[in-house]
Amino acid sequence: SQGSLAANILPDNLPKGKSFAVSADERRVAINTANHISVWSVETGEQIAELTLPKRQTHAKRIEFSMDGSGLFAVMDWRRDSPGSAKLLGWRLRDGQTFLDAALHGTRAAFRMSPDGVSLVTADDAHQIQIWDTGTGSPTGVLGEAPRLTDLRMSTDGKILLLGDMEGGVSTWNLDSGQLEMRYVGAASHVTSVAI
């Protein structure tokens, strides 16, 4: 897991952060601190990039590198003085420039990267499921609406999206057709997590 990996490979001089990610080749690590995300080389212990976060966005709920390690994506948490202002952000690490800045809604906004790294899927409290191109940062499709999200997972072949929701339901979406395949409702309360 990323937690055990980080404990073994992170240089001692890295700052303590709120969340982190390790690149697929295990050569870079990204750490969210007070108002930025810093990217470090695992091999040299040197800082590679410092990505400034937008005002009112201080906490990355999830950080993930692109598959080739050239980009970084994050869902930023909302602050109490600006509820519902979550964001999906994407940066190019070669120059630190933001190429994706999209508004998401609510405290449960989340994303998952496709296994091939070509796209990512977001879902949020506005009940909208969207697909994004990781190379350009452009939206490429909307799957439809779903109940309020609690958890989001993608199959290893990138074809099925599984969502848990606040209404005690679990939905499966076919990412090739963009269609809802099944929704099972049976939990006594909201679904806390899902796995596929």
Secondary structure blueprint with pairings:
Elements (H helix, E strand, L loop, with lengths): L1 H8 L9 E4 L5 E5 L3 E6 L5 E6 L7 E6 L5 E6 L10 E6 L4 E7 L6 E4 L5 E5 L4 E6 L5 E7 L3 E6 L5 E6 L3 E6 L4 E7 L11
Antiparallel strand pairs: 1-2, 2-3, 3-4, 5-6, 6-7, 7-8, 9-10, 10-11, 11-12, 13-14, 14-15, 15-16
Description:
This protein has 196 residues and is mainly beta. It is 4% helix and 47% strand. The protein contains one helix and 16 strands. The protein has one helix at 2-9; strands at residues 19-22, 28-32, 36-41, 47-52, 60-65, 71-76, 87-92, 97-103, 110-113, 119-123, 128-133, 139-145, 149-154, 160-165, 169-174, 179-185. The protein has a four-stranded antiparallel β-sheet, covered by helices on one side. The chain starts with a helix and ends in an 11-residue tail after the last strand.
From the alpha-carbon coordinates, what is the Rg to the nearest angstrom?
Answer: 17 Å
The total of helices stands at: 1
Distance between the termini: 17 Å
Number of strands: 16
Helix content: under 10%
Taken as a percent bin, the fraction of beta residues is over 45%
Uncertain segments are 1-9
**Structural class estimated from helices and strands:** mainly beta
Overall mean pLDDT score?
80
Spatial strand arrangement across the major sheet: 1-2-3-4
Largest sheet, in brief, is: 4 strands, antiparallel
